[in-house]
Write a structure and sequence with these properties.
The protein is α+β, with helices and mostly antiparallel strands and about 130 residues long. It has one domain. It is built from 5 helices and 5 strands. The protein has a 3-stranded antiparallel β-sheet. A two-stranded antiparallel ribbon has the order 1-5.
């Protein structure tokens, strides 16, 4: 799951000292104060990038058993360096406002607009049930 960084719509607002375009709606404030948590197993490679392991046939007991008989029970989703940075930050304790600030500090202009890029990536991971808030 790689984020192209092209940006997409996001719930703008102002929260936690990080500046966002648009009005500070209650939904936007809630989004940026959310503390995402990883829902799937993952591995970190030697180069610092992450691979997320998604069970092929679901996370239930029968699905895991069937997948184990196939020899490769998980899909491997390779994240780029920015995606890996965000993935590691989704610890259930760090709010998105802080993740956006760390993202900007770690990658600078490369991730601008950082809030849009982060929002797009988080929304994609939420839809894919890779994280929860």
């Amino acid at each position: 799951m790689r984020d192209s960084g092209t940006g997409a719509g996001y719930a703008g607002g102002k929260s936690g000292g990080t500046s966002f375009a648009g009005a500070a709606s209650p939904d936007a404030v809630a989004f940026w104060n959310a503390r995402p948590r990883r829902c799937l197993d993952w591995r970190e490679l030697d180069d610092g990038r992450c691979i997320v392991l998604r069970p092929r046939l679901g996370e239930g007991r029968i699905g895991r058993w069937l997948a184990s008989k196939l020899g490769n029970p998980c899909y491997r989703i390779r994240l780029d360096d920015v995606g890996s940075f965000i993935w590691r930050a989704c610890d259930g304790e760090t709010p998105l406002t802080e993740i956006a600030g760390r993202l900007r500090a770690g990658f600078g202009e490369r991730v601008e607009p950082a809030e849009e890029r982060l929002a797009r990536f988080i929304q994609s991971m939420l839809r894919s049930r890779m994280i929860s808030v």
